[in-house]
Amino acid sequence: MIEDVGLAQDPYLELGVSRGASGDEIRKAFHKLAKKHHPDANPGNKASEDKFKRASSAFDLLSDPDKRKKFDAGEIDADGRETMRGYGQSPFGDQGGGFRSANFEGVDLNDILGDMFGSRGGRGAGGFSARGADLRARLEIDLEEAIAGAKKRVPFADGRTLDITIPKGVVEGQTLRLKGQGAAGRAGAGDALIEIGIRPHPVFKREGDNLVMDLPVSVPDAVLGGKVQADTPDGPVTLSVPKGANSGQVLRLKGRGLSDAHGRRGDLLARLMLTLPEAADPALEAFAETWREERPYTPRRRR
Prior knowledge:
alpha+beta, HSP40/DNAj peptide-binding domain, 8 helices, 22% strand
């Protein structure tokens, strides 16, 4: 189902940052809001869902240097639409970007604008439509697709489907904009806005830009050290388990996590889980019994 959520007039206010905020400050502000208001963390909370969508759209605009420059210059509005330059403010104090009924030497400005655009009155109900409305959809993708990119087909409420390319390193809550693929209008079609969601993974859990996984390790490999194969989103790799490893110990694989807003990838954290054989092993049981009798267990101190 496609929803059209009203945007704040100022994306800076939506994210709670100053107009001079750096790209890193904008990214941190968005991540904070996304974590707080994500629908997965607030099931059934429409207010949080709307806040999440507005923050995503604001981040989509301000994280793009070209869009941000155009917005600051007044060339586009908070939804990325081109503004009607020259008509945004009248000499009669209209600060809202609309068109008020004001006579100038007997000429009604609304009549002129109505003739120009084929209708009478201001924007909104009964007014002219300079540009078609944007259409919105949400697309859930797999974690591997978010990392490596993919091609997807997205259905929209008007019955159309669009084939799109998911770029490498797309992040949760990011909005992809397809220009001219929205609803038709007198001055051109609007855009299609596709919000990206990343499905939970059966192996990897997300912690910010990092991924965490449990890695089974045999008793001999934990005691003596050894090589074990570990799955990663980029394919299997071989890890070296240090001698005397213990359950809960973490091995870090740099650059194997999720991408952030700047394309930098986090890490994959492999948490060792000491695993016994599925079938009973008499030799192992005898060894353990002897070990318990001769060397009472002393818990290892946490560092």
